[in-house]
Amino acid sequence: MLPHAGSLLTMMSFAAGTFSAGASSNPQYMTFQPASGVPNNPLPLIIYPMVVPREEEDIARYFEDLFARNQWLPRWRYPVYPYTHYHPNTHELLGVGAGWAQILFGGETGRAVTLHAGDAVLIPAGVGHQQLAASDDFFAVGAYPRGMMPETLRDEQERVNQSIVEIKRVPMPQQDPITGGEGAVTEIWHPLAND
Questions:
Q1: DSSP string across the chain
Q2: Following CA atoms 124, 127, 112, 51 in sequence, which dihedral angle do they give, to the nearest 10 degrees?
Q3: What pLDDT does 22 receive?
Q4: What's the distance, CA 116 to chain centroid?
Q5: Which of 9, 115, 122, 185 is the 20 to 30 A CA-CA neighbour of 42?
Q6: Starting at the edge strand that comes first in sequence, how are the strands of the sheet with 85-86 ordered?
Q7: Which residues pair with 118 in a beta bridge?
Q8: How many angstroms separate the CA atoms of 38 and 97, rounded?
Q9: CB 177, CB 46: distance < 8 Å
Q10: 174: left (phi over 0), alpha (psi -120 to 50) or beta
């Protein structure tokens, strides 16, 4: 049974600092308050550690197939931009295809997370993200819900109010993008959206 959404948000809030995704095999959640030029989102960022089986040789292809099967279309294989940016019009799903990266989520007052090959992260619309450091071989597979094309904005204060309006219009995924059915999105995002 899930706790009330308000207490759930309190439970998921983290102080600034670093976090390693592989510390647990269960999904991890992070929420962020608006931060200078980054609107963020009341929905928590969801980290899925170690999604890909260890014996899998082509991690990127595994993510591309998994994402497409669950209606999140893979659009690119690339590192994450080295500056703070966000997408006001769509959620974004990343799967680490190789190496590792430290990514700052939530803007300058956010939280740095170290992701490794096989980890995935669902970034709610409006949540800032920036690559801080990475191994030479790091890249991620980026995917978006079917029919969505991301608009990419920098952390500019004058765009925040309009971005907040756009973020509220982003459709809620009907199923979890990793499981294809019940999962972190249906168990956490759906109750928060209905609160």
A1: -PPPHHHHHHHHB--SSEEEGGG-SS-EEEB---BTTB---SSPEEEETT-S-TT-S-HHHHHHHHHHHTTEEEEEEEPPPSS-EE-TT--EEEEEEESEEEEEESSTTSEEEEEETT-EEEE-TT--EEEEEE-TT-EEEEEEETT-----EES-GGGHHHHHHHHHTSPPPSS-TTTSSSSHIIIIIHHHHT-
A2: 20
A3: 52
A4: 14
A5: 115
A6: 18-20, 111-116, 100-105, 129-134, 85-86, 153-154
A7: none
A8: 27
A9: no
A10: alpha
Rg (CA), the chain: 15
Closest Cα to residue 22, out of 60, 44, 45, 50?
50
Structure tokens belonging to residue 93: 């799903």
> Average pLDDT over the chain, rounded to whole?
90
Task: Say if pTM beats, i.e. exceeds, 0.85.
Answer: yes
Read out DSSP for 138-153?
Answer: -EEEEEEETT-----E
| Encoded tokens for 3 | 């706790």
Amino acid at 78: Y
Q: Give the dihedral sign, CA 140/151/193/109.
A: positive
94-119 residue pLDDT tens? 999 999 999 999 999 999 999 999 99
Structure tokens at 119: 């980890």
